[in-house]
Design brief:
single chain, 156 residues, mainly alpha, 3 helical TM bundles of succinate and fumarate reductases, 60% helix
């Protein structure tokens, strides 16, 4: 393959008129906001690291949960209100479920934030989608935490 100044000559003698056709463009051009500068924080690196670490911890929490609940405790047929009440009477199981809830929600929200950043083209769309995501995440985490800590087995 010989490279010329105006075009690329192919082996069979054909010409490619535009050598820029082989260039891969960046996914999004620089905006006025970042303008190629480095940010003061390293948020994206910390978010990337959080995804890896929380994923590893979640694998152990979820597999442990499944093994204990489905294998050692008799399976799905044993799960009832009384079963949950007995579990959540122990601070260990409250902490286990709380950690699993928080990590799963934050892990999933961080992944969705990345998807929104990648696919929402307009800034206003990206803003509203992220606000909706944060609202849903905060609501779910707070409600789940409230349920775990205020669960009353003596409901009549």
């Amino acid at each position: 393959m010989a490279i010329e100044t105006d075009s690329i000559e192919l082996v069979d003698g054909g010409q490619v008129a535009d050598p820029s056709a082989f260039l891969i463009e960046p996914p999004r051009s620089r905006t006025k906001r970042n303008n190629g500068r480095k940010s003061r924080t390293n948020f994206e690196m910390l978010a990337w690291l959080f995804m890896r670490l929380s994923g590893i911890v979640l694998v152990f929490l979820v597999i442990g949960h499944l093994i204990i609940q489905l294998t050692l405790d008799g399976g799905v047929s044993k799960i009832s209100f009384a079963f949950v009440a007995g579990r959540w009477a122990s601070p260990f199981w409250q902490g286990w479920d709380l950690l699993m809830l928080w990590l799963a929600m934050l892990h999933g929200a961080n992944g969705m934030r990345t998807v929104i950043n990648d696919y929402a083209e307009r800034d206003t769309t990206r803003l509203w989608l992220k606000l909706l995501l944060v609202t849903a995440t905060v609501f779910t985490v707070l409600l789940g935490t409230l349920v775990i800590f205020t669960f009353d087995p003596n409901i009549s």
